[in-house]
UniProtKB/TrEMBL annotation:
Originating species: Simiduia aestuariiviva
Pfam families attached to this UniProt entry: Phage_int_SAM_4, Phage_integrase
Xref: InterPro entries: CB, DNA_brk_join_enz, Integrase-like_cat_sf, Integrase_catalytic, Integrase_integron-type, Integrase_recombinase_N, Integrase_SAM-like_N, Tyrosine_recombinase_XerCD
Name used for this protein in its record: Integron integrase
All copies of domain Core-binding (CB), residue ranges: 1-83
Source taxonomy: Bacteria, Pseudomonadati, Pseudomonadota, Gammaproteobacteria, Cellvibrionales
Family of the protein in this entry: Belongs to the 'phage' integrase family.
Keyword Aminoacyl-tRNA synthetase tagged: no
Length: 339
């Protein structure tokens, strides 16, 4: 049970329509800030304490720059929106800006991973790679989000609370239709028990019968019931992302891929990279991925090497000048590997 103060912050976040993921993240950072200041109430703290906390994250905890930004956003929300104590501009030690290129699988590796999966998990992986979805976006899909006439998928409340439309692979039609029938059948059985599908925010009050209508059924329903975080009633949510993550981990191992760190998001990275390699315009890929800034999408040009297209390694020039036979080969001697 959280403290009355944190519960009041939670209530105000829900009144403002923040997502549950943002709510959880902000409350975690606010709680860490309180403990960092020896459980002093945030009203008793100010810019100096915030500066010390953010600098501690950078210098002592060595967090990534995006992690530090999330902590800052949480505290800015707390002081600017809740406590009405604007913090203004704060100078603090910035975390090291780490630039990591996304891990991308080759088409053969993608095929091996998908082949190592089966049934529901295989379909989810195909949607991640075939439509560039995030794992949460795929699991939140409902029957009404699939458009077979236009072969598109509508993603609601994606990252940044944005909606977008992305493409749908025609070869998935039969598998999706089967999954849709399964989701609707499960919803119908739940309705007989007086239980409906979970709906976002307060939609269950605005549309009382929507939780039992086929179009609102999840494509990938959970195997058990849960308590709705807003309404407090029993409902069926979508499948938890840990189910897919565990299945993918086993599939990657079975596919013999050990030199790359593969996650569900790797399939989305691979979608973007392979789209660009296939000749798709970067603006099109940006829209399909739902990026606000094209600079975010441009990271994939670094993965495929478009930023140095046409350049040649100086070693290639050396091979052109000197015949390969004239370059001495390195002889491996046992002495080289003696400890």
């Amino acid at each position: 049970m959280a403290s009355p103060f944190l519960e009041s912050v939670r209530a105000q976040m829900r009144a403002r329509g923040y997502s549950l993921r943002t709510e959880k993240g902000y409350l975690t950072w606010i709680k860490r800030f309180i403990y960092f200041n020896n459980k002093r109430h945030p009203r008793e703290c100010g810019p100096d304490e915030i500066k010390a906390f953010l600098s501690w994250l950078a210098n002592e905890k060595h967090v990534a720059v995006n992690t530090q930004k999330t902590a800052l956003n949480a505290l800015a929300f707390l002081y600017n929106k809740i406590l009405d104590q604007p913090i203004g501009d704060i100078e603090f030690d910035l975390a090291n800006k780490q630039r990591h290129l996304p891990v991308v699988l080759s088409p053969n590796e993608i095929g091996a991973v998908i082949a190592a999966l089966a049934g529901r998990e295989q379909l989810i992986a195909q949607l991640l790679y075939g439509s560039g979805l995030r794992i949460t976006e795929a699991l939140r899909l409902r029957v009404q989000d699939i458009n077979f006439d236009r072969m598109t998928i509508t993603v609601h409340n994606g990252k940044g609370n944005k909606d977008r439309v992305t493409l749908l692979c025609p070869e998935l039609r039969d598998a999706l239709e089967h999954q849709m029938r399964l989701g609707v059948a499960i919803q119908a059985k739940d309705a007989e028990k007086g239980i409906g599908t979970s709906l976002p925010h307060a939609l269950h009050r605005k549309l009382p019968k929507a939780d039992r209508s086929p179009q609102w059924a999840f494509l990938f329903p959970s195997t058990s019931y849960c308590t709705h975080p807003y309404g407090g009633h029993v409902c069926r949510h979508h499948l938890h992302d840990s189910v897919m993550r565990k299945a993918l981990k086993i599939a990657v191992r079975d596919a013999g891929i050990w030199q790359k760190r593969v996650t569900c998001h790797t399939l989305r990275h691979s979608f973007a990279t392979h789209m660009l390699l296939g000749g798709a315009d970067i603006r099109t890929v940006q829209e399909l991925l739902g990026h606000s800034d094209v600079k975010t999408t441009q990271i994939y040009t670094h993965v495929i090497g478009d930023h140095f297209a046409g350049s040649a390694s100086p070693l290639s020039q050396l091979f052109a000048l000197i015949p390969l036979a004239k370059i001495d080969k390195i002889e491996e001697t046992p002495a080289t590997y003696v400890a």
